[in-house]
Amino acid sequence: MVAGSLQNPALAAKIDNHEQARPQLALERTDLVFEELVEGGLTRYVAVWQSDIPELVGPVRSIRPMDPDIVAPFGGIIAYSGGQQQFIDMMEATEVVNAAFDTDDTGLFARADERQAPHDVILQASELVDRNSTLPPPPQQFSYAATAQGSSAAVDGVPVSAIDSTFSASRWPSWTWDAASAAFLRSQEGAPDLDSTGAQLRATNVVVLRVAIDDRFPDVPQTTMIGSGEAWVASGGKSLHAVWSKADQTAPIRLVDDFGVAVRLAAGNTWIELVPADRGSVVLVP
Description:
This protein is mainly β. It has helices spanning 67-71, 85-92, 125-131, 152-156, and strands at 11-15, 32-37, 43-49, 56-57, 77-80, 97-100, 109-111, 121-124, 143-144, 158-159, 162-166, 173-178, 183-188, 191-192, 202-203, 205-211, 213-214, 222-223, 227-235, 238-246, 254-257, 264-265, 270-276, 281-285. It has two domains: 11-131, 3-Layer(bba) Sandwich (YerB-like fold), CATH 3.50.90; 143-285, YerB-like fold, CATH 3.50.90.
């Protein structure tokens, strides 16, 4: 976390992960990123900024039915570019402030000339947060160790050189431990996943949750966020088997190890892979 900025409200945004949306703006400055399955076997992100609010983020895309359950625990703001009305209604029913491209008449969103629609909607993130500066900061979502060496994975886990996950035949992100930078480096479909500066995206913590997929909405898979399942938590070049649970929409995700003890993450950014239990896979490479 960046000193002096912890009073910001959380800003969550639906960020595109189509090939034409890459490189995205400001993913390297997130506190948390959730990767979720959407239609066509593709994935999108719910990216959350709080300690470091960028001037611009994007490309911003539409809301999905699992997003209210992901975002509600943070409070603050959610930014998106529209969506099916039933999903918008679900998002607006939360206590989170909604900022939507389709209904914005204040100039917060714009289309970038150098990008192709619909992968071109850019949000003035810092301006949006400034306009909502009276919102409270989010409650703490996870347990953290005082040092990276004290994280649960580093203390009790086993060495892991790579974490390979498969969402579908079209999306298989992976993370490789890089001891030199003390971070996991991200790839997608076998190629380095780069940020807007040309550097490879990285994470201090990689959390993989095996999740159920609800197919009640035609052609739109809904990740089931309220419930529990198997998890792996990786920090400091090690991985720890865990169990995740989430009691209700506004409750944070709880992580405990196989003995029921709360899992402590390392201080730093975290990517959370919501890998389908029925159609995806997770491989931890020693």
